[in-house]
Each structure stands twice: as C-alpha cells, then as structure tokens.
C-alpha cells in the first residue's frame, strides 16, 4: 500500500531524501496551497509535513480522514490545533533540537544589531546618507540581559550573552536558584527580570499563559530606555502595547523576528525607526533547515511504518528500553480490551486494569492505552488509536484505574481487566505464556485457556449433560467447524461457560439459534 505524504511548507531536500528513498512512500510537495485547497486535498494523505506557515486547524483535521501524523519541521506547534489532532487520533511530532543554535545565534545578531543600530545605519547609507550622529549605540558589556523562558534557546542565549560580558538574569518556572548559579546567571521572578533588564529577550512558547505576557503592565515594570528582543513567537509581546511604549519613550528599541500576524499585514509598528526586524528568520540557516527536516522526516517515516516517534508532541514518549519490555504484551492488552467490550451492551462507566507479577514492574501506561483502544473500538471502530484512546474514554465519562500487584496468582504475568456498568461488572484476565503467546485464562470467575484470536463464541449454560452436545450439533447443522472448546464451571450442576473457537464467523441467526437451545443462558460471538 502506498503511503501519501503532503509537504505544504518549504522543507530542506536533505530531509526529504529518506522519504524519496522509500518506495512505500509517495511525496507531494505543494507549498502554495490556499486554505480551501488544503481542506479539499488533505483527505488523501497519510501524513502532513509543515513548518510554521500552514495552519492545521480543526477544519483541516476534520477533513483529514486518513491522516496519521503531522510532522512539524521546527519547535513551535502553535500553528497546529493539538487538541483537535489528539481527538482525531493524529500524532503530532516536531523537531525541537535542530534549530536551537540558529535561533540563539539569530537572537544574538538581533541584540547586537539593536544595540548598535546597524540596520538603521545600513538603510541610511544605502540611501547615500553618510550620517554618523544618528546611530550612536550602546555597549552590551556590563549591561543586564533579562531572559524570559530559559529552555533550549533561552539557555543558549544566556551562554552567549555571558560571552559578551553581560550580566544575565532569567525567569522560567522550571529554573531553580541552584541551576541558575551553576549556569553563572541570576535567578529571578518575572517582575525581577523585567525590572532588571537593560535588554529583555523572550524565549517561551506561545501558549494561553504566555499570550501577551509582555503587555502594558509588563512594560511599566521595566527600566526606562529598555530594549526588547523577540525571536520566539509573535503574540508573546502585545504589539499594541509595544507600539505605545516606544512612542512614550519607555522602550528605546525593539528587535522582532516574529509577529502576531505572519506574514505581517499591519506595518505600523515596523515603520517606527526604533524597530528593527527580520521576517521569521530565526531558524533560516542551511544547517537548521537540514537538521529539522532530517529529524522530522525520520519520525514521520517511523510512524507511518509502525515504529516509534522520537519527538511526539501530543503523546507521551516511551523510551526504547521500556518499549522493548512491554511490546510483547501489546497484542494481549488490545485483545482483552476487545474481548471484554463484547461482554456487555451497557455503557461502561469504569475500567480497572490490574497488572500482576512481572507486569507490575513495567511502565504500563502504553498497555492501558492499548486496552482502552481495544475496548472502545467496538463502537468507535478504527478511528480509535493510541493517541486518542484516553481522550475519547474521558469524553465518554469512562474512569480508568490502574492497579499493580506483585502477587502472581500462579502466573508469571497476569493482566486482568474489569469493566463496571450500571448493573454490574465483568472481568477477563490474560497472560503471556512463554513460547505459546497470549492466552485468556479467566472470564469472570471461570478458568479457561483460549488464544485471543479468530472467531470465538462464549456460551453461558447450565452444567447439565447434553448441553455441549446440543451446541456441537447445532453448529454442525450450519456447517461450522469447532476448532477448540473449553468448558469451565464453578459448581457441579451450576452455572458454566463454554468457550469455542470456530473456523468461520457465526452469523446473527446462528447465534439466535444457539440462544434458543435448552439450558443456554447467554451466547456472545466475539471476533478478534
Ligand atoms: P523550550 O521548550 O526548550 O523552552 C521554552 C521555555 O519556556 C521552557 O523552559 C518553559 O519552561 C518556559 N516557559 C513556559 N512558559 C513560561 C512562562 N510563562 N514564563 C517563563 N518561561 C516560560 O523551547 P525552545 O526550543 O527554547 O523555543 C523557544 C521559543 O522559540 C518557542 O516559542 C519556539 O517556537 C521559538 N522558536 C523560534 C524560532 C524562530 O525562527 N524565530 C526558531 C526556533 C524556535
Ligand atoms: C520554530 O518554531 O522552529 C521556528 O519558528 C522555525 C520555523 O519554523 O521557521
């Protein structure tokens, strides 16, 4: 089957190389699509690769019926509706490391250009004006740089600023005094940083909490004559507030690489002589573009071909060594989820998953997701996947609880799933037998030993002579061959179950006939 990838923003050819090499992949590069064109064609693709230009909105995701993964060649994912991607089961991966150096270097270039008014002087000279008076700058040495957001890029900027003999003070919710001390910088709260900086540079993502973080109030807390740098995201700084702060003389200059609206439509701020700017060039180096394209293409290829992503954004990443240990249980967990979903027609309110024996030592979160996926697929089909299983369960109000116990109950590993509904609970347990694979070993309180695959029939009946024979004869009348049969009972003459594996699916009318047999209480056909 051919896997189709749409590349809707320009990406380095170096990254695309791996995609072109793979004959399962068909790549379409279309970097000038209008919103309507994207909405129209996205349904044909398994993967979408973007930078920051393409807006991957709810509407785009609604049309993206085949889409499995969105690759963002860069860090910021604010152009992708992550909640909608998760809801639609689309994994988002990014390339967070490849452009850190370029963005940090660009920030320093902007800082220096701002301090020395290089762009303004250059523009004058290009207009044949030899003006040495208007462009007197300030030194960086011994000035204080306030950094808001000390992640990958913020930390690199701090290092470089120290190289310029600047004092650095930073605020980041994850920064501690000890860490700051180790980095040779000062630690402060947001107000401290705003109040101390001769220059202030922001390096946070654009989130609800950081939108207009630098607003009227923030400017009022800054030193008079402060200079501002934003090479992170438009919208972290309130552009209207910045405009007013420049006009009032509070802010002496600003260097902007990113804008609230891109491409810029309103040039009011950019027309101020105190503002220098680049059109979102922070990551625009040959090296960064190669790095991010290679990283993101590798992750997209991995996902499309059943592997693991290194940089998932809307999905917890599972370290390779953990994955290796839990992988053998994937089949078992999904099959138990699918099996137990058939045992009730009522709405499931709670799912309790018990991990016993050696399973209790593992990071079982991926198995829980897989079990829930198996469970929800009965009513929601293939649309449910690892990315959206929890989200969809939550939306349905299903509570998911994990329990762990080292007690083995006679098995080296045991995965027990219990579902609770208004009128009761059902339970199924399974194990992984060395060399034999997955087995269902308990249904409610009955012990069985059944491979969770193929066509199964679960029959609850009275433990009476003849019950098994009647079932066998009826299936024979419909020309259905029984491959395996297990019988479990609690008491002699009491309630019992039969678990049959049959060679072909039992249609509805066969199940109805089985239900009509004497001493049969319930019949459920389960196709796994
Ligand atoms: P990162 O995730 O490594 O760092 C972001 C930091 O911001 C984190 O340490 C986080 O704790 C901190 N933070 C979050 N909310 C905060 C708040 N309210 N106050 C203070 N700190 C807060 O990200 P990064 O790779 O360093 O990227 C930083 C920014 O730069 C992002 O917005 C990214 O999109 C942008 N970026 C821009 C370009 C460009 O071309 N201009 C290139 C690369 C990255
Ligand atoms: C990023 O978030 O990585 C940058 O904005 C780079 C980009 O996409 O140009």
UniProtKB/TrEMBL annotation:
Record keywords, A-Z: Amino-acid biosynthesis, NAD, Oxidoreductase, Serine biosynthesis
Family matches, as PROSITE patterns: ACT, D_2_HYDROXYACID_DH_1
One Pfam short name: 2-Hacid_dh
Known pathway: Amino-acid biosynthesis; L-serine biosynthesis; L-serine from 3-phospho-D-glycerate: step 1/3
Annotated catalysed reactions: (R)-2-hydroxyglutarate + NAD(+) = 2-oxoglutarate + NADH + H(+); (2R)-3-phosphoglycerate + NAD(+) = 3-phosphooxypyruvate + NADH + H(+)
Ranges where the ACT domain occurs: 456-528
The organism's place on the tree of life at top rank: Bacteria
InterPro entries: ACT-like_dom_sf, ACT_dom, ASB_dom_sf, D-isomer_2_OHA_DH_cat_dom, D-isomer_DH_CS1, D-isomer_DH_NAD-bd, NAD(P)-bd_dom_sf, PGDH
SUPFAM superfamilies hit by this protein: ACT-like, Formate/glycerate dehydrogenase catalytic domain-like, NAD(P)-binding Rossmann-fold domains, Serine metabolism enzymes domain
Record-listed E.C. numbers: 1.1.1.95
Function as written in the Swiss-Prot or TrEMBL entry: Catalyzes the reversible oxidation of 3-phospho-D-glycerate to 3-phosphonooxypyruvate, the first step of the phosphorylated L-serine biosynthesis pathway. Also catalyzes the reversible oxidation of 2-hydroxyglutarate to 2-oxoglutarate.
Family note: Belongs to the D-isomer specific 2-hydroxyacid dehydrogenase family.
PANTHER family xref list: FORMATE DEHYDROGENASE 1, HYDROXYPYRUVATE REDUCTASE
Protein name as annotated: D-3-phosphoglycerate dehydrogenase
Annotated organism of origin: Bacillus carboniphilus
Encoding gene (name): serA
């Amino acid at each position: 089957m051919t896997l189709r990838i749409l590349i809707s923003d320009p990406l380095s050819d170096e990254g695309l190389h791996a995609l072109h090499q793979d004959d399962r992949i068909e790549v379409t590069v279309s970097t000038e699509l209008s919103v309507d064109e994207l909405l129209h064609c996205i349904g044909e693709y398994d993967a979408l690769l973007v930078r920051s230009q393409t807006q991957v909105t709810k509407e785009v995701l609604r049309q993206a019926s085949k889409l499995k993964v969105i690759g963002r060649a860069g860090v910021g994912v604010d152009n992708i509706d992550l909640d909608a991607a998760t809801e639609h089961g689309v994994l988002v991966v990014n390339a967070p490391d490849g452009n850190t150096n370029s963005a940090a270097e660009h920030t320093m270039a902007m800082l220096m250009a701002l301090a020395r008014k290089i762009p303004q002087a250059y523009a004058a000279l290009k207009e044949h004006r030899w003006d040495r008076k208007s462009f007197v700058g300030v030194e960086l040495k011994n000035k204080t740089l306030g950094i808001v957001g000390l992640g990958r890029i913020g930390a690199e900027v701090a290092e470089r600023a120290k190289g310029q003999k600047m004092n650095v003070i930073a605020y980041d919710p994850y920064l501690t005094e000890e860490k700051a001390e180790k980095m040779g910088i000062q630690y402060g709260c947001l107000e401290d940083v705003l109040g101390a900086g001769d220059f202030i540079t922001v390096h946070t993502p654009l989130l609800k909490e950081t939108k207009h973080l630098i607003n009227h109030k923030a400017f009022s807390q800054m030193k008079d004559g402060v200079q501002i740098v934003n090479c992170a995201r438009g919208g972290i700084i309130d552009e209207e507030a910045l405009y007013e702060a420049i006009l009032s003389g509070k802010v002496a200059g600003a260097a902007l690489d990113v804008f609230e609206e891109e491409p810029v439509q309103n040039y009011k701020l950019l027309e101020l002589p105190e503002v220098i700017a680049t059109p979102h060039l922070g990551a625009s180096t040959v090296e960064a573009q190669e790095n991010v394209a290679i990283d993101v293409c590798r992750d997209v290829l991995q996902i499309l071909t059943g592997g693991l992503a290194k940089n998932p954004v809307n999905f917890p990443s599972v370290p390779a060594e953990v994955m290796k240990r839990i992988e053998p249980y994937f089949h078992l967990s999904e099959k138990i989820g699918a099996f137990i979903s058939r045992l009730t027609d009522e709405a499931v309110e709670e799912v309790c998953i018990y991990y016993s024996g050696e399973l209790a030592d593992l990071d079982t979160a991926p198995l829980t997701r897989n079990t829930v996926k198996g469970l929800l697929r009965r009513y929601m089909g293939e649309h449910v996947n690892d990315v959206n299983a929890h989200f969809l369960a939550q939306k349905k109000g299903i509570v998911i609880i994990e329990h762990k116990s080292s007690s083995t109950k006679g098995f080296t590993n045991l995965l027990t799933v219990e579902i609770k509904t208004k009128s009761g609970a059902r339970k199924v347990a399974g194990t992984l037998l060395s060399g034999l694979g997955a087995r269902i070993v308990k249904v409610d309180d009955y012990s069985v030993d059944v491979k969770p695959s193929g066509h199964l029939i679960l029959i609850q009946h009275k433990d009476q002579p003849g019950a098994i024979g009647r079932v066998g004869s009826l299936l024979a009348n419909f020309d259905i061959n029984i491959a395996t049969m297990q019988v479990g009972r609690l008491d002699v003459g009491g309630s019992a179950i039969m678990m049959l594996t049959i060679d072909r699916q039992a249609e509805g009318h066969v199940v109805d006939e089985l239900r009509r047999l004497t001493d049969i209480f319930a019949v459920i056909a389960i196709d796994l």
